[in-house]
């Protein structure tokens, strides 16, 4: 079972969402776009702008925590654009 670390972007909010999942990315995005009460419910139109595949959930989660610790939109953009 492959797991993913991923970054979503909302043009409307001009914000990133960083997460991980062990389900197909398209299915995970569908859940983010569905009617729910989480952070991504604040806007529609989220798009997957970056992802990495990992062999297990713990490694994907570790990558998520590492990227979230950056707290820098500039560094997120550098990662997405392949400059990190």
From TrEMBL:
<keyword id="KW-0255">Endonuclease</keyword>
<keyword id="KW-0378">Hydrolase</keyword>
<protein>
    <submittedName>
        <fullName>Putative endonuclease</fullName>
    </submittedName>
</protein>
<dbReference type="InterPro" id="IPR035901">
    <property type="entry name" value="GIY-YIG_endonuc_sf"/>
</dbReference>
<dbReference type="GO" id="GO:0004519">
    <property type="term" value="F:endonuclease activity"/>
</dbReference>
<dbReference type="Pfam" id="PF01541">
    <property type="entry name" value="GIY-YIG"/>
</dbReference>
<dbReference type="InterPro" id="IPR000305">
    <property type="entry name" value="GIY-YIG_endonuc"/>
</dbReference>
<feature type="domain" description="GIY-YIG">
    <location>
        <begin position="1"/>
        <end position="78"/>
    </location>
</feature>
<keyword id="KW-0540">Nuclease</keyword>
